[in-house]
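lol ok so funny story. i was supposed to be doing the assay writeup but got distracted and ended up predicting the structure for this chain instead. priorities right. anyway since i did it might as well share w the group, maybe its usefull for someone
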Amino acid sequence: MEKTFTKEELAKFDGQNGTKSYVAIDGVVYDVSDVDAWKDGQHHGNTAGKDLTEVIDNQSPHKRSVLAKLTAVGKYVG
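and the output, tada:
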């Protein structure tokens, strides 16, 4: 069964204090823990544990091309 994440549950995965770093894009939660650019849950002023759909669409130079390289870990229900 696929794991679902509420906003509060996703917020726990902020990459701080040894936790995993997860981000949500279009209702899918991705694990960015092993991505060097997301060290300690931070990446260009963004923080893991959040829905970053608008950020990736409006601010990211690579847009959604990076999503194929990430592991989906669940569904974001907000």
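The chain has one domain: 4-76. The first helix runs from residue 7 to 11.
back to the writeup now i swear
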